[in-house]
Amino acid sequence: MTVDEALRHAASRLSESPSPRLDAEVLLMHVLDVGRTWLYTWGDRHLEAGAEGRFEALLARRQAGWPVAYLVGRREFWGLMLDTTAATLIPRPDTERLVEAALASAAQPTGALLDLGTGTGAIALAFASERAGWRVSGVDFSAEAAALAAANAERLGLDVEILVSDWFSAVAGRRFDVIVSNPPYIADDDPHLERGDVRFEPRSALVAEAGGFAALDTIIDGARSYLNAGGWLWLEHGFEQGENLRRRFEHYGYHEIATLEDLGGRDRVTGARWRDDATPASA
Predict the structure, then answer these.
(1) Distance of alpha carbon 230 from alpha carbon 167, whole angstroms
(2) 179 forms bridges with which residues in the sheet?
(3) What is the DSSP letter of 46?
(4) With 90 as the cut, is the pLDDT of residue 249 above it?
(5) What CA dihedral angle connects 21, 25, 28 and 29, to 10 degrees?
(6) At 258, is the secondary structure helix, strand, or coil?
(7) What is the Cβ-side half-sphere exposure of residue 261, based on CA atoms within 13 angstroms?
(8) Contacts of 58 (CB under 8 A, 6+ apart)
(9) 75 has which bridge partners?
(10) Which of 58, 212, 245, 268 lies at a CB distance of 3.0 to 4.6 Å from 187, suitable for a disulfide?
C-alpha cells in the first residue's frame, strides 16, 4: 500500500470524524516520523509492513473514538508542541482566547501570573512564551498532570513554576497581577460528556457540581485574596454560562467585567478586574 492509498483508505474509515483526512495525515506522520510535506512529496512510496501495521492499529483506536492527541501523544497550542496524556484535557484552539485575554491584561514588562488547573501547562506556557519578564506559575490538583506540565516547560525551555495544588493551597500568601483558569465547568448530566473526545478525557477536569458552577464560584471568590489591587481574573466557561458568570463577578465586587467569544461566536471567556482600591483579604 502506498502513502496516498493509505491516506485515502484511512480517511474513508474515519468518515465519522469531523476531520477524517487531517486525522489520517497526523496519524501517518506520527507512524513514519515525517512532516506533511513529506507525505505530499512521496505519496507513491510503499509503506513497510511494520509501519502499515502500526498505522492500522492507530486507525482502529481512532475509529473507537480515541482522541488523536492521545494517540500521538502531542498537540500544538499557541505554536508550541505540547506532550499530552490521558491525565489531562486536550488543549483546544478556543482556549487561545484565554491566553489572548491574559496577554491584553499584562501590558507591563513585569508581573506575576497564576494558571489554575494547568493540565499540560498550555495556558501558562503560551503566556510565558510572550512575556519573558513575568513570573509565571501553574498549579494542578493532579500530580501526574503537574509532572507533564513541568516536563513540557523544561522541553520548551520556558521558565514556568509548576506546583501540585488544590486551587490556591500551594500559593498561600502570594499575590498575582493576572489569574487565569480553564476549570471544570460542565454539569454532570450534560449529554456532551458522551460525545467526541471528551468521552476519553479525565472527568475530574470536565465536570463540576452545582450545575457546572462549583469550580468557577470557588475561583471567583478565592481569587480576591490572591489578586493585587487592579489585577485581572479570566475564566474559560461553557457557552451558556457567560451571563451567569458576569452576575457572579459583580456580586463578588469585581468591575470592568467582559466576555469574549470563541471561534464559533459563542461566549467562552469571561473576566474582570479586582478593585483598584481593594485591600486583599488574608489568604
Answers:
(1) 21
(2) 114, 233
(3) B
(4) yes
(5) -170
(6) strand
(7) 4
(8) 27, 30, 31, 71
(9) 82
(10) 212
